[in-house]
Amino acid sequence: MTTSGIFQILLYLVVLTLLVKPMGVFMTKVYNGEKTFLDFIFKPIERLIYKLCRIDAAQEMNWKQYGAAMLIFSLVSTIALYFMQRWQFYLPLNPQGLSGVSADSSFNTAVSFVTNTNWQGYGGETTMSYFTQMAGLAIQNFKSAAVGMALAVVFIRGIARFETDNLGNFWVDMTRSILYILVPLSFLAAIFFVSQGMIQNFKPYDTAQTVEGIQQTIAQGPVASQVAIKMLGTNGGGFFNANAAHPFENPTPFSNFIQMLLIFIIPGGFTYMLGRMTKSAGHGWAVYGAMIFLFLVGTFTAYWAESKGNPLYPATVNQQVVGGNFEGKEVRFGVANSALFATITTDASCGAVNSMHDSFTPIGGLVPLTNIMLGEVIFGGVGAGMYGMLVMIILTVFIAGLMVGRTPEYLGKKIEAYDVQMAMLYALIFPLIILGLAAVSAIAPDFGLSSLNNQGAHGLSEILYAFTSGTGNNGSAFAGLNANTLWYNTTLGVAMLVGRFFMIIPMLAIAGNLARKKQIPPSLGTFPVNTPLFAALLVSIVIIVGALTFFPVLSLSPILEHFQMMSGQTF
Amino acid sequence: MPARCAQRILSLYAINIIANECFSLTADWAGTRPAPTKYMKNLITSALMILVFTFALGVIYPLAVWGVSQVVFPYQANGSLIKNANGEIIGSELIGQNFATDNYFHSRPSAAGNGYDAGASGGSNLGPTSQKLIDRIKTDAENLQKENPNQQIPADLVTTSGSGLDPHISPAAAEFQIARVAKARKISEADLQKLVAKFIEGRDFGIFGEPRVNVLKLNLELDKQWSVASVQ
Fold this sequence. Notes:
heterodimer, A: 18 helices, B: 2 domains, 6 strands
């Protein structure tokens, strides 16, 4: 670990923390329907959209209506995206003449982008036309992010409101997320990225005659507009196969820094908004504190492991001169920024990568894997992280209540059996899918193991990472696994669907149930949720619920591989 | 055993709750509320929303970014392409390319296609205990050792990058190759040392990222100062 590396990580933390409050204040205004400084541009557009789509903006929905609107919207989006890929050769802007995408891959990708996963079984520049990328995948980045944000807002409203069924209007929350938050920030970020060297054009691929006289095809495309929203919406689906490691997709260390900020800025803002909407600013900061703690532990573990390097390299190779384990990493980012990016992208449900996680050291690779297994609640995806964390908070409050023998309360509400049942359902679906599907793949030589790029314990890590990433709606990968097969496309598609929608339903049920409750005044027995003690308890619940479930399988994959590496074994 | 029983009961229970919730959801659509209209209304709104947003975000937004960037940053937006005197493209400042002869500084090994294929980016994705990875590194290290027997090899010269298109090498990797290039071009190592020092880019604003050398730019300057033709 170098001073410069540690300084860059801490600088990131400081800048992020400074942005949390302004972002949270602005987001609160947007979701309360208050006036913002962007009204003069977007208010007329907003009205026009409601008019065109026949939306009655004043009408509020209960949790079931909200859920139904969300599910139907997602279903229609999936179908539209599926056929856009299948028929891309009939559609414009396909200068490379790419053919239609196969049925299983189209299904996988459609589900992947609608669920905000952005798992990519395909290689962008060799598969998708500019039109599919732009009008299919990139707009889904906006929509799936907005859906996640709307759902988190519903949960916060459920906590903030009393004795009502009304939780807001899905169409309005989604439209306002896109117009006031996602579009302006993406536009500014995209222009900034171009200034750094990111491309934005509609040319066919260029052919260069290199200095040594070889032909080099250079892929082109409308990259900047898509990358901006891919980071901001924690989507993570790259324009190119190499994602944010590709120089056109992440040209400089400065663009890398801004990309990392974009991932956390909305989830960070949500913590402040939680405090503001529930009139308990301290609670928002306590949640932020818990997240920051887990984030720093992950980052420094990964950075430490990576900077140790790989002991299997011959002694003639000097790894320390470049900072540590360097396979799959870019010179401009170095080890510190690669470890930091890997932690951020998996804390959130982003999944963009600026280095190849598959080539990390075992402990370095354990960090991103564990981050996703914890449920991506360390900031988490836009919205998804917030409601995931709120479920953990419900469990924390419940367990704190058990410990002192009182009915648990959370911000003036009694937490009862129904809420805890739903919270447990949310927490249990996740490991069920991951472990179930990974287990089947791990014993199937024909369709499961045949896709492996690495043998031994690392092979199990590859399979486990794929299903964790899919179910967690992350989208990053131990990319050596060839996931573009019938088995993986289909099962990962199912994992993504379940991991998104089966977890949203119990979450919405809790929100609906909370909103109906009466307010009870805080008493001496109330466990305060704005203290460091609460933050510490929350951290332990996240770790216990998440990590213990997965510890046995982790000990067979990255942890086993660590000891094998230290004892000099290769596969 | 009790743990397994508890687990089974819990999972049955979970399925039960999901089923109940799903039924009550469908009951809502089919029962108490005027079902077909609600369902159809959501469907129509969804379809309209998708059309509107596809146009606004899928067409207008990228075109707006394209318009602004083509006017303000046309060089970057079109790929930072480097052209020769005849206007032919010889590469991109940002995309690494393969250099095999001794006359040039070499880029890192690449896993993109057959090496630096900028139409198929990607890493090796070999894990830390992969025999293939360790064998590859050993072979490359042995070859590099020959050109500079007394020095340790900087790790970036034997590892592939994440993109396979890394345009940079570390300053140490550039210095490692000075002896070979100087010998091939029959120029003094000190002169080359100066040139390399000039091409070391520091961290962005002195803070972000790591120091690096752009291989293509360095090699082009090399050709400009000491042309290959005069060597051969």
